[in-house]
Each structure stands twice: as structure tokens, then as C-alpha cells.
Design a protein that fits this description.
InterPro entries: PDZ, PDZ_6, PDZ_sf, Peptidase_S1_PA, Peptidase_S1C. One of its GO terms (biological process) is proteolysis. Keywords: Hydrolase, Protease, Serine protease. By secondary structure, this protein is an alpha+beta fold. The chain has three domains: 9-148, Trypsin-like serine proteases (Thrombin, subunit H, Beta Barrel), CATH 2.40.10; 154-254, Roll (Pdz3 Domain); 258-353, PDZ domain (Pdz3 Domain, Roll), CATH 2.30.42. The chain is built from eight helices and 25 strands. The protein has helices spanning 135-148, 165-170, 189-193, 212-220, 250-256, 274-280, 298-301, 321-330, and strands spanning 9-12, 15-23, 28-33, 42-43, 54-59, 67-78, 89-92, 104-107, 111-119, 130-134, 154-155, 158-162, 179-184, 200-204, 207-208, 227-234, 237-244, 246-247, 259-262, 267-271, 288-293, 309-313, 316-317, 336-343, 346-353. The strands form five sheets. Strands 19, 20, 21, 22, 23, 24 and 25 form a seven-stranded antiparallel beta sheet that branches. A six-stranded antiparallel barrel has the order 5-6-7-10-9-8. The chain starts with 8 loop residues before the first strand and ends with a strand.
């Protein structure tokens, strides 16, 4: 029920809560409560949740304590929302508003199946789309925080992107399944395992890979040093690689980040690789390619689609994803942004307003 940031303790109902440790990348923290004879909520199994199942959100919206709202599980495994670095959300239509963050999402067996964390809204209030961190994920992160004081994340050393129908065709793949490897860092675990730029990852640890966000999250929660299997497509042929998972550090994270999410606009872009530049008919450094567009977002309503190349932001050229992010942040106070887009052989200006 609390949002703890930049503090070590908080008094609530005469109980001292001490913030032990947290991980902002996943929006999960562990607090210590020195009290006795306190009832504890039962934790459920979020992997057993089904779309359409009834759930209850409990919280303190707008300072209104002990508020309970009811809805259903709208979707599972939501990623690329732009809220946290690592995302795997439960989506619900149970009303979640400012003040609900940190409250439980409960099933009809009175088991906590999620932690309410965010909403998608243009008004700042409820619009029917809320998100919760699955309790299985929160519990796994909390266990690491308690045992080690930090979350040790797995590392492959690759940059990945969604596999669109056009990209699948370009790489000679009939079915659009898996994710595309657009970059492999030198001497990384992926490089040493033989993974190459242009490979398509279709399974990890024997489980299908369906999208970028869930794959990234699964790798991050894999124990460094463990040996895992990657099933890939290369030149249309399926093969299996064995990779030893490395440990993610801040330096490695910065080195492999060539894609950026612009939450305000509702899209994700990636720095052009040589293959992508050739595919879209532009030169390296002449913009960034849109890899994902959130349904209902400002970008979607403007007709921007995956595969669109953004060449300029506010009449200034952007050469990579990092420059694009800085340009968008610079325009955040103006409530609008001018983009020069390239679709096929045509270029056009588009203004996005919020």
C-alpha cells in the first residue's frame, strides 16, 4: 500500500516499516515490519490465472482508504508498456487509480495474485486499463533481495527486436514467430555460444519465445552461470545452441541498449542496423526504425506503424535510439512534437500532440 522512494522508514498506524532493499527496474521492494501477531495475506500462483477470471483490487486511491474494486483479468504477459525496465504485467479492468500502487490484486479465493502498479490513461485516472506485477515474479525478486540484498540478472549480450511479417519475409521465414537478433556483443555469452546477427530465436529453455519483453524478462531471471538452450532459425534452418548465462552489470546493460521506448508517444524505436538500413532504403545514421506501437497510443492514432523510419525530431536529424529519446524528452514541455517519417520511398511530416 506504500510507495517508498528516497526514504528509510515510514510510520503507518504506529507500525514502523523499514525499507530493506528494492529494485526500481522491476518496481519491487522489501520492507521489514517489527510487529507480532499480524495477519498475513495468502499468496497465490499467478501462473494459474486465466483471462476472464474475476479479480479484486484493493488500495488507497486519491486518499480513500480501504477501497475495493472488482474486474477481470483482461490479459497476461503484457510487456513493452514503458513502465519498468523489466515487464510482465497482468492487465485488468478493475479500477486502479493513483494511490492503488502497491496494493494487492486478489482472486476469488482471497489469494494475492498481483501487486497493483500502474494504469494506462490520458486523463490521469481510470480508463479501464490497469496493470499489476504477477505475484510469482514479485516473490522471486523478493527472495533474491532478502537472500542476497540485490537481484542478480542474467545476461546474453544481444539486442533483439520484434519479428514483423515484412522482416520474416526478408529473412526467408514463412511463419511470424519468435524474435529477431539485430546485434550480438563481442565476447558476450551469446557470441561465445555462436549466436549471430539475423538469427531468429523461437524458444528458450524449451519454451516458445513470443515477444521481446517476455524473453528479456525470462533471461534476466535466469541464474548467471547456468547452461541453457536457445532454439533458433538461421537461413530457414532450425538449430539449437547451448549458452552459459552471464551476469548483467550496469556497463553491460548500457552497452546493449540500442532500443528506446517513448512512453508518452506509445512507441519503441531501434537504432538502424546495416540490414535494417538496406531493407528500408536509408543510410546508416539516417534515423531510427519503429519496432513497436502501442494500440490506442498517440503514435497509433497518427498512423505510425512498425517499420516506419523516423528521420527527424523537431527538424533535427536523429542518428540512433539514444538521440531519439533525448529529442523526445527535450520536447516534453511543448505538448507536441514534429516528426519526419519515411514509409517506403515517401517522406512526410507528422505532428503528435498530447
Amino acid at each position: 500500500m506504500l510507495i517508498l522512494s528516497g526514504c528509510n522508514s515510514r510510520m503507518v498506524l504506529n507500525i514502523t516499516l523499514k525499507l530493506q532493499v528494492g529494485t526500481p527496474q522491476s518496481d519491487v521492494a522489501v520492507i521489514e515490519i517489527k510487529a507480532s501477531s499480524m495477519p498475513a495475506a495468502k499468496l497465490g500462483d499467478s501462473s494459474k490465472l486465466e483471462v476472464g477470471e474475476w479479480v479484486v483490487a484493493i488500495g488507497n486511491p486519491f486518499g480513500l482508504s480501504h477501497t475495493l474494486t472488482v474486474g477481470v483479468v483482461s490479459a497476461k504477459g503484457r510487456t513493452s508498456i514503458g513502465i519498468n525496465d523489466y515487464e510482465d504485467f497482468i492487465q485488468t479492468d478493475a479500477a486502479i487509480n493513483p494511490g492503488n500502487s502497491g496494493g494487492p490484486l486478489v482472486n476469488l479465493d482471497a489469494e494475492v495474485v498481483g501487486i497493483n502498479t500502474a494504469i494506462f490513461s490520458r486523463s490521469g485516472g481510470y480508463m479501464g486499463v490497469g496493470f499489476a506485477i504477477p505475484i510469482n515474479l514479485a516473490r522471486e525478486i523478493a527472495d533474491q533481495l532478502i537472500d542476497k540484498g540485490e537481484v542478480t540478472r542474467g545476461y546474453l549480450g544481444i539486442v533483439i527486436q520484434p519479428l514483423t511479417a515484412d522482416l520474416a519475409k526478408s529473412f526467408g521465414v514463412e511463419q511470424v514467430k519468435g524474435i529477431l537478433v539485430s546485434q550480438v556483443s563481442d565476447d558476450s555469452p551469446a557470441d561465445m555460444a555462436g549466436l549471430r546477427q539475423g538469427d531468429i530465436i523461437i524458444a528458450y529453455r524449451g519454451e516458445p519465445v513470443t515477444n521481446v519483453g517476455s524473453f528479456r524478462n525470462r533471461v534476466s531471471l535466469t541464474q548467471p552461470g547456468s547452461t541453457e538452450e536457445l532454439t533458433i532459425l538461421r537461413e530457414g534452418k532450425q538449430m539449437t545452441l547451448t549458452v552459459t548465462i552471464g551476469k548483467l552489470t550496469r556497463e553491460k546493460l548500457a552497452a546493449q541498449t540500442s532500443s528506446q521506448s517513448a512512453e508518452k508517444l506509445g512507441l519503441t524505436v531501434q537504432t538502424l542496423t546495416p540490414q535494417l538500413a538496406e531493407q528500408f532504403g536509408v543510410k546508416m545514421g539516417e534515423g531510427v526504425v519503429v519496432t513497436e506501437v502501442r494500440p490506442g497510443s498517440i503514435a497509433a492514432m497518427a498512423g505510425i506503424e512498425p517499420g516506419t523510419v523516423i528521420m527527424q525530431v523537431d527538424r533535427e536529424p536523429v542518428k540512433n535510439a539514444a538521440e531519439f529519446k533525448r529529442a523526445v524528452e527535450k520536447s516534453s514541455d511543448d505538448k507536441s512534437i514534429l516528426l519526419l517519417l519515411r514509409r517506403g520511398n515517401a517522406q512526410q511530416y507528422v505532428v503528435l500532440s498530447w
